[in-house]
Amino acid sequence: MTTETAASIPPASFGPEISREEGLMLYRDMTLGRRFEDKCAEMYYRGKMFGFVHLYNGQEAVSTGVIKAMKTQHDWFCSTYRDHVHALSAGVPAREVMSELFGKETGCSKGRGGSMHLFSKEHHLLGGYAFIGEGIPVALGAAFTSRYKRDALGDSSSNAVTAAFFGDGTCNIGQFYECLNMASLWKLPILFVVENNKWAIGMAHHRATSDTEIWRKASAFGMVGEEVDGMDVLAVRAAAQRAVERARAGEGPTLLECLTYRFRGHSLADPDELRDPEEKAFWAARDPIKHLAGVLQSRGLATAADLEAIEKEIDGEVRDAVDFALAAPEPDPAELTRYIWAED
After folding, report:
1. CA 156 → CA 70, 161, 248, distances in Å?
2. Closest CA to 39 of 89, 82, 94
3. Contact yes or no for 62/81 (Cβ under 8 A)
4. In the chain, which ranges are continuous DSSP H helix?
5. How far apart are CA 204 and CA 209, in angstroms?
6. Which residue ranges form the domains of the chain, and what is each CATH number?
7. Residue-wise pLDDT tens digits, 59-71
8. 77: β partners
């Protein structure tokens, strides 16, 4: 899909049918991700949050579209260093995510991980990873476990699917290709979700790869590959639903390339001077949250007042998360070595 083609599609004239309840759920999840990240930026620049912080603004349709097409508390999710919104979509409470960013004991990783290492066994989040590609083999292992329980141990109820999220830059490293090969060889129930935001830190996508259409690389491994408009949550959700259905049916993995864009720099320490202002303006006009709002209103599924009420609710939830995190206790120094090894 070229940018010219994407720009020519009327915002509310395509996409699968959804109910009012589904539409508002998707809008709420995307809004939570956006407002949470905006608050993180505020806290970082106020000196309340430290270390590297990579925000997700602009890519919300991918997290919401994929994760909400799956069964949270049943399926598994593996993230990257840009993991806050994946955690929220998977159901990790905003209080726990914000607490982790503040390094507090109440964080989902007990204050030991910080921004790039969110983890929640309860919510089937297998972690964020500071180095690109680290999470893909972990996700592959989760998918193998699901298949092994069913085929080798006779557990017919074992049909969990795993989603591995990563960026376009990750598709140029060995682990990506090794895991695609193994997943296809064993027909594992896994979605390889490429969040192609066109930039790997400061490296433009077209300068770093021999074939810019990543989804086509699936054919080399005999798996399904699909490209989708990553700024349209309904399109992403529909593609994810198709991939999940194939995975549960034993038909193997899918390589799903979501064409998206990050609205902020690579991290909050990045002045973002490398990208062309016209490029940023083009993608800003395709804001996925505004897009969904237009779809919901044009289809009569929500009014402006409905959406405003959700936004106010989310703002309150995010403020509560900050207040909770600021008041939460620091990790106990006496437990410095705890969680290094598995506990009984």
Report:
1. 19, 14, 11
2. 94
3. no
4. 3-8, 20-45, 60-67, 84-89, 94-101, 135-151, 174-185, 233-248, 277-284, 288-298, 304-327
5. 9
6. 19-327 (3.40.50.970)
7. 999 999 999 999 9
8. 125, 163
Q: Which residues contact 185 (CB under 8 A, 6 or more apart)?
A: none
Q: What residue type is 119 in one-letter code?
A: F
Quick check: 82 and 55 in contact, CB under 8 A? yes
Residue 262 tokens, joined: 């990050």
Sequence-ordered list of residues with C-beta below 8 angstroms from that of 253, at least 6 positions apart, any chain:
143, 180, 183, 184, 187, 188, 189, 190, 191, 192, 223, 224, 247
- Four-point Cα dihedral 31, 288, 172, 134, nearest 10: 10
In this structure, the number of other CB atoms found within 10 A of the CB of residue 235 comes to: 21
What DSSP letter does each residue of 101-152 carry, written as one string? Answer: HTT-TTSTTTTSS-TT---BTTTTB----SSTTTHHHHHHHHHHHHHHHHHT
- Concatenating the DSSP letter of every residue in 31-61 gives HHHHHHHHHHHHHHHTTSS-S-----TT-HH
Token match 């020519």: residue?
8
pLDDT digits (tens, 9 = 90+) for 14-31: 578 999 999 999 999 999
Q: How far is CA 67 from CA 41, 64, 75, 205, in A?
A: 24, 6, 9, 25
Cα-based distances in Å from 163 to 9, 101, 152, 258, 319 = 28, 23, 22, 13, 30
Cβ-contact 131, 125 below 8 angstroms: no
Please determine, for residue 73, whether its predicted confidence score (pLDDT) is greater than 90: no
Considering only CA atoms, which of 318, 265, 221, 263 is closest in space to residue 53? 265
341 confidence band (pLDDT: 50, 70, 90): confident
